[in-house]
Amino acid sequence: VQLQASGGGLVQPGGSLRLSCAYSGFTLSYGAIGWFRQAPGKEREAIACMTAAVGDQIYADSVKGRFTISRDNSMDTAYLQMNDLKPEDTAVYYCGASEVVIPTRQSHYEFWGQGTLVTVSS
Predict the structure, then answer these.
(1) How high is the pLDDT of residue 73?
(2) Residue 9 region, left (φ>0) first, then alpha (ψ -120 to 50), else beta?
(3) Is 44:38 a contact under the CB 8 Å cutoff?
(4) What residues contact 112, with CB distance under 8 A and at least 6 apart?
(5) 56: DSSP letter
(6) How many CA within 13 A on the CB side of residue 98?
(7) Pairing outcome for strands 116-120 and 9-11
């Protein structure tokens, strides 16, 4: 299983970015795709999750209403649309894949992509 995250960069506060997570060797007919981030000096936190079987989208309070997780099954790619970005969103963003139907902790994610850096600054 391989995951490849991309799309990070420098953006001004209030701006938008869309991150992509291309995956292979993983069937998203069950399980989940999640997005996580780790800011300097902080622990990695889960920010968004999409469950394949149920189709639920779950967001951390810090990004709810601003970020949207989605997927394109034909492209085996998941996305994280990030709007109204704030300086506190600056972090390395990771995508992960889980074979657990409804993962509830990071340890449920068996597969990880490399991170992509998002910097929100004027």
Answers:
(1) 80
(2) left
(3) yes
(4) 3, 94, 95, 96, 97
(5) -
(6) 23
(7) parallel
